[in-house]
């Protein structure tokens, strides 16, 4: 099963410990151009210069955003902006946050480590989303230039008794490596775990587990492509060579601190749409309840949650009508989603929405569903409603978050969910630690 190991990662020099909030970013794929500019301006050593450097007019194969990232990384290592951990270690990582769903603050615990890269059909490291070749090509260019994994993949494992994290908490050094409040208000603490018995215990406990990828599918597949290239060049043995591993942030899927937010669907434009015809057409699949136009967003969230407790429900809002419409799936209508779907997929709200409303009622094609010019995603109901009412979008369909048991059921059947089915919140910050890959180095416990 999963092979995890401690590693000698590279971290920001402790002289920057009071500035960590200005050095880190979310993962590259959630950073918009305006945020990219902001992170470049906020600090000269912000990790954005490595993960999402700016393109320049006149870029060439020898001077581009990837080569500049590699030069920057080497410079930061040389001037000790980054320093290497003294010995192979796990990094225990906690984040305290507001889950943005009306619940009180939570603390999510996880640990940073290396995980052996598995073959696609191994069923040891299990994806749940489709990937796109353009994104993988982009990350591969960066990885080849830097010979480094700059951002961890977010993985989940099963541990109902929470033995692994409990052991790691007992094995930490007293003082955290980093402690800071990030720009979004989340509070982060990172500790080194160097106790040999603890490390060996975690390795043994993880050895019978599978890892479910929560976030970072493109980065994981890119790491496998990179591994294959390195094997061709340097060989597959010894099997502990550094390029056979990839950096993960691992989290117990059963802990209370785990939060999945919904990814509400905003539609930029829908040609020929008629509200009255739409409401008539969807009666075949859904019960419709009209909600007051002045209902507050907290109440909307509560209504949606209650309606979706044991069924599939959505709240629909259209730009030319101030009302909201609660759509609740009629009994037996999942069977009309198509014979090509496994029963576990038919239980996913996002697929009910895609098959019955987007395709059957609104007439979108499967290709349209991946078109980012048509569909956008937000997790905040207030922002969704505001975006529709100010005319930026034609309509929004608000969903409940995907349940963790549905994620497990789908992935256990080796099935793939539609994109943006899950949003594990908060994202794991980039820059806590990086994994520089030396093809001649072997990964060892000590």
Q: Shape, please? A: globular
Total beta strand runs: 21
* First and last CA, distance: 22 Å
Biggest sheet architecture: 9 strands, mixed
CATH homologous superfamily grouping of the largest domain: Conserved hypothetical protein from pyrococcus furiosus pfu- 392566-001, ParB domain
Strand content: 15-25%
Query: What is the class of the largest domain in the CATH system?
Result: Alpha Beta
Helical content (DSSP H or I, runs of 4+): 25-40%
Structural class: alpha+beta
Write down the CATH topology of the largest domain: Conserved hypothetical protein from pyrococcus furiosus pfu- 392566-001, ParB domain
Radius of gyration: 23 Å
Q: How many domains make up the coordinates?
A: 2
Low-confidence stretches: none
At CATH level 2, the architecture of the largest domain is Alpha-Beta Complex
Estimate the mean pLDDT confidence: 94
Describe the structure in your own words:
- This protein is of the alpha+beta class.
- It has two domains: 4-259 and 426-436, Alpha-Beta Complex (Conserved hypothetical protein from pyrococcus furiosus pfu- 392566-001, ParB domain), CATH 3.90.1530.10; 263-400, no CATH class.
- The chain is built from 14 helices and 21 strands.
- The protein has helices at residues 33-42, 48-51, 65-78, 133-146, 163-170, 196-206, 217-234, 275-281, 297-307, 343-346, 349-361, 366-369, 381-389, 404-412; strands at residues 4-5, 10-12, 82-84, 90-97, 106-116, 125-126, 148-149, 153-157, 178-181, 187-193, 211-215, 245-252, 259-261, 264-267, 286-291, 313-318, 324-329, 375-378, 395-398, 423-425, 435-436.
- Strands 1, 4, 5, 6, 8, 9, 10, 11 and 12 form a nine-stranded mixed beta sheet that branches. Strands 15-17-16-19-14-18 form a six-stranded antiparallel beta sheet, covered by helices on one side. A two-stranded antiparallel ribbon has the order 2-3.
- Strand 16 (313-318) and strand 17 form a beta hairpin.
- The model has no long low-confidence stretch (mean pLDDT 94).
């Amino acid at each position: 099963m999963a092979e995890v190991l401690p590693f000698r990662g590279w971290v920001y020099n402790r002289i920057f410990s009071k500035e960590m909030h200005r050095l880190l970013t979310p993962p590259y794929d959630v950073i918009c151009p305006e945020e990219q500019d902001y992170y470049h301006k906020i600090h000269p050593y912000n990790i954005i210069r490595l993960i999402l450097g700016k393109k320049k007019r006149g870029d060439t194969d020898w001077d581009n955003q990837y080569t500049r990232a590699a030069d920057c990384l080497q410079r930061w290592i040389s001037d000790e902006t980054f320093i290497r951990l003294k010995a192979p270690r796990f990094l225990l990582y906690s984040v305290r946050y507001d889950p943005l769903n009306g619940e009180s603050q939570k603390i999510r615990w996880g640990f940073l480590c290396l995980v052996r890269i598995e073959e696609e059909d191994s069923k040891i490291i299990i994806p749940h989303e489709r990937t796109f070749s353009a994104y993988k090509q982009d990350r591969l260019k960066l990885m080849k230039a830097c010979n480094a994994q700059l951002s961890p993949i977010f993985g989940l494992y099963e541990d109902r008794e929470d033995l692994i994290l409990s052991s790691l908490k007992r094995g930490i050094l007293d003082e955290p490596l980093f402690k800071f409040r990030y720009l979004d208000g989340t509070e982060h603490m990172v500790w080194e775990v160097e106790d040999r018995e603890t490390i060996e215990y975690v390795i043994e406990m993880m050895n019978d587990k599978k890892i479910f990828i929560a976030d970072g599918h493109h980065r994981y597949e890119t790491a496998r492509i990179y591994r294959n290239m390195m094997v061709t060049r340097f060989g597959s043995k010894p099997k502990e060579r550094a390029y056979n591993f990839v950096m993960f942030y691992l989290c117990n899927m059963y802990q209370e601190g785990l939060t999945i937010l919904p990814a509400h669907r905003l539609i930029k434009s829908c040609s020929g749409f008629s509200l009255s015809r739409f409401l008539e057409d969807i009666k075949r699949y859904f019960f419709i309840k009209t909600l007051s136009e002045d209902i507050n967003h907290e109440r909307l969230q509560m209504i949606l949650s209650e309606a979706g407790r044991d069924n599939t429900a959505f709240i629909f809002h259209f730009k030319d009508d101030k009302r909201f419409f609660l759509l609740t799936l009629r009994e037996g209508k999942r069977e009309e989603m198509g014979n090509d779907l496994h029963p576990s997929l038919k239980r996913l709200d996002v697929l009910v929405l895609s098959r019955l409303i987007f395709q059957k009622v609104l007439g979108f094609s499967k290709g349209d569903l991946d078109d980012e010019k048509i569909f956008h995603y937000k997790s905040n109901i207030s922002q969704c409603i505001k975006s529709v009412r100010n005319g930026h979008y034609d309509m929004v369909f608000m969903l409940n978050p995907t349940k963790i048991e549905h994620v497990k059921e789908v992935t256990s059947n080796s099935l793939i969910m539609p994109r943006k089915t899950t949003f594990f919140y908060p994202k794991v910050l980039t820059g806590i630690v990086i994994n520089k890959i030396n093809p001649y180095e072997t990964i060892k416990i000590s």
